[in-house]
Amino acid sequence: MFKTLKSAAAAALGAALLLGTAACGTTDATTDSTTGASSNATEGYDLSGVKTNDSVAALLPSKVKSAGKLTVGMELSYAPAEFLAEDGKTPVGYDVDIATAIGKLAGVDTDIVSSTFDSIVPSVGSKYDLGITAMTITTERLEAVDFVSYYRAGSSWVVKKGNPNNVDTTQLCGLKIAVQTGTVQEEEANKAAEQCKADGKDSIEVLSTKLQTDAATSVVTGKADVFYADSPVGGYAISQTGGELEMLGDVEGTAKQGVAIAKGDEEMDKFIQAAVQELMDDGTYEKILKHWGVESGAIDKAEINPTDLA
User: Fold this and answer.
1) Rounded to whole angstroms, how far apart are CA atoms 74 and 96?
2) Where is the Solute-binding protein family 3/N-terminal domain (predicted)?
3) Rounded CA gap, 46 and 284, in Å?
């Protein structure tokens, strides 16, 4: 999101993500005032209709109530979940809208704090009240934090248009795979690399970057053969390149994503579950997702530490 890119194709991707342009690749947004759906979400969903809900607000932890704000850690290069708007300063995306709506239900402000993805889990409960950053719920992460489920996404492989390097996702040995540091996709790529080594095959080079935009750019510039990311993120990156990238195969491994909460903080768990469920029940949640074009990942039940992660 912050880098100057070398090739014309890379510049197209970088500029689009830097400026926060939306999925259809134009700045002329058209929005349905009834549903909030937008063909080009350059701004967040209009949350002016979200008012304080007394039953939800009553569950707000006293420490947040006294602070008057809910502090949320996000990695702001993960469009369309969370990224920076055209001014280069304002956080936007469906996670930003959901976090803001949660605060509004409780009658407090939401303070979005930019962070690197891999530092969010260790900072929840100390630096941040919550982590909301398109984070997949895994058994490993559940050992470190609590989660309230709110979305479902899979993983997608993205290559240059026409797949000039003949990438085959069933035969990854010998490839350069771009991923974001700390993600499930990085873990899977590293496991594949270990397997190739154990089998005596050509090695996989895992190119791990702090920013998801850098991972996508690695494919555009030819530094990597393929990049591996959450399906909404892969789809968004493809839409920004004017045909320079394409998805390879189908979305894989659909899994739930969740709001990360300090381990054992039952008060916060119950508050977030009630707030997210209220947004689901009153229709705000669906409208937010439609605004960003990611409603296919909607779920209808917010659960604390779900056991069914798929």
Assistant:
1) 9
2) 69-296
3) 10
The answer to whether 167 and 244 have CB atoms below 8 angstroms apart is: no
| Stated pTM of the model | 0.75
**CB atoms closer than 10 angstroms to residue 69:** 13
Half-sphere exposure of 205 (CA within 13 A, CB side): 9
pLDDT digits (tens, 9 = 90+) for 162-196: 999 999 999 999 999 999 998 889 999 999 999 99
Cα–Cα distance measured from residue 70 to residue 61, given in angstroms and rounded to the nearest whole number: 10
Q: Please, are residues 93 and 83 in contact by the beta-carbon 8 Å criterion?
A: yes
Residue of 129, 151, 153 whose CA lies nearest to 285 = 151
Radius of gyration of the chain (CA): 19
Dist CA 39 CA 29 (whole Å): 6
Closest CA to 158 of 228, 223, 220: 228
